[in-house]
Amino acid sequence: MEWDSDLEDLSGGEEEEEEERLFAGGLGGPFSIGERLFPGLPVPASYGLAVTDAIEPDHPIIYVNEGFEKATGYRAEEVLGRNCRFLQCRGPFAHRRHPLVDSTVVTEIRRCLENGIPFQGDLLNFRKDGSPLMNKLQLTPIYDDDEVTHFLGIQFFTEANVDLGSPPGSFAKESLRAARFTSDSFYRPVLVEHVGNICREFCSMFQLSDEVISHKILSKLSPRDIASVGSVCKRLYQLTKNEDLWKMVCQNAWASETTRALEAVPAAERLGWRRLARELTTLEAVAWRKVTVGGAVEPSRCNFSACAVGNRVVLFGGEGVNMQPMNDTFVLDLNAREPEWKNVMVGSPPPGRWGHTLSCFNGSWLVVFGGCGRQGLLNDVFILDLDAKHPAWREVSGLAPPLPRSWHSSCTLDGTKLVVSGGCADSGVLLSDTFLLDLTIEKPVWREVPVSWTPPSRLGHSLSVYDSRKILLFGGLAKSGPLRLRSSDVFTIDLCKDEPCWRYLTGSGMPGAGNPAGIGPPPRLDHVAVNLPGGRIVIFGGSVAGLHSASQLYLLDPTEEKPTWRILNVPGRPPRFAWGHSTCVVGGTRAIVLGGQTGEEWMLSELYELSLASSAYNGN
Ligand SMILES: Cc1cc2nc3c(=O)[nH]c(=O)nc-3n(C[C@H](O)[C@H](O)[C@H](O)COP(=O)(O)O)c2cc1C
């Protein structure tokens, strides 16, 4: 398919064009640029993009964006190949245009399409559920030499205040028309008579300067839509190649915390934001590889905790021979030309422990919580600034601490708060609580998240942060009546809500629950959960029952309306074992699995790297 006569020259060939198409199908995200496009006017709830093939008979749809899917309730696969007029019918079972749809506007659309000229106007449409939508529709022909090859439709949807119950007589029709044609109405049709190039004299967007289009409009779109918009014409294609634009798009889509983490990876920087956005969206470059590093972590141990600080992997504590609790700190700098483990002399180390958690916050800070020490279970908190001139652990005595515990799960929120959930308390009792501690306050107070219901108590589960403030809990060894079973359940909670509450997302372990959506990961504990920019989560490893391979990767997007598990097939040599407490994500582009070879002996000079972007391969 030829989008633009010069496109091939500009893009460097079919391969890249194919890549753009791949990318455009990869992800989505809610967006709203109506406010920017129409300042001062009521903001449409969402807008859609639809591209039709103008050479095929009856203008079949060849692309719709996620905004279209969300606003109309129709999924892309339900509408591809069809003419857009189905939106004029009330719901999927209606076969006739609804009588309240203004036939003069439809006739005008037909005339514009026949003459290959742009159209702009308003008409009543219907969602899949039959509810009415006002559609401020802009149609733009795409020319290849003298021939119209495609039409681009932009739909600004808003709620329609239409009484569908009343008979579709002339009064209802007239009053609807009158309401739309008042001088200050947002829906006033603008029918434009102009034959020729789409980029002139029609859509106010195309009269704007490149700078304004890039900064005020394109930068607000999702990566997937930028890729689609770039396919429309030469000018937009060139604008969407700009690296600064892509950086803004990534920041909007992934939050600046993630982009900062990505910036810290030199190889990712070399790859460029456009390519990185594509690879992290499509996951086309994900691969396993084995890495051998120098140095040694001695004495040997298991049940330590590992965490990434920038491009460094930090390992703290663990269980030595004869269940000896360790309290030493090792650092592996992956930016070094020949990375090697180094035992770092850190002042005032916490008491030795294993089964604890180690998390990173505020850039270069580490926080240790709980675990099992010489005297039993712990609930103390220690922090360390790894970049301090003389690094030293400092105990933070948080008031009202949670019960001492081990094999709990932790994460950090906003780069400032430690979140601790579940684990195993004294006498083997499993816990189900969730606590927060603000580490930026001098005398912090632990706060238990007040909820009316908690997921069943458990240990060895994972916590992942998405949408900056939501937490996803997966798996673990969970209490199930009188038994303890490995779980594959997924729960989420929005910690910024006034009254946060746990929500069961998917799984099979809950009473009354059906099969997990999609091909879900088999139940497991002490697995690895990797957060991808944009909110998706990858699960692998851990202790899995039966003959299932622990290295199989499972992908879930909790931001989807009906989250569905997908299997991610990845080339390269995966580790045979991967444990949550000994794996960490470095710079948002690679998960480093320590000692995954035997599962028994911890070979810490052999690492397995799951690189999410191809940059992670080249050099660093
Ligand atoms: C790219 C494109 C997008 C369109 N989007 C819509 C739409 O969102 N809603 C709608 O009612 N009609 C839309 N139309 C118009 C219809 O597809 C159709 O052309 C119109 O109803 C006139 O043709 P008809 O009289 O044969 O139905 C779109 C047309 C094109 C080419």
From TrEMBL:
GO biological process: circadian rhythm; response to blue light
Short name of any one Pfam family annotated for the protein: F-box-like
PROSITE patterns found in the cross-reference section: PAS
Keyword Flavoprotein (UniProt): yes
GO molecular function, one term: photoreceptor activity
Keyword field: Biological rhythms, Chromophore, Flavoprotein, FMN, Kelch repeat, Nucleus, Photoreceptor protein, Receptor, Repeat, Sensory transduction, Ubl conjugation pathway
Compartments where located: Nucleus
Domain PAS: 61-116
Pathway: Protein modification; protein ubiquitination
Entry's family note: Belongs to the ADAGIO family.
Chain's role: Component of an E3 ubiquitin ligase complex that plays a central role in blue light-dependent circadian cycles. Acts as a blue light photoreceptor, due to the presence of FMN, that mediates light-regulated protein degradation of critical clock components by targeting them to the proteasome complex.
Entry-linked NCBIfam families: sensory_box
Protein name, per record: Putative LOV domain-containing protein
Lineage: Eukaryota, Viridiplantae, Streptophyta, Embryophyta, Tracheophyta
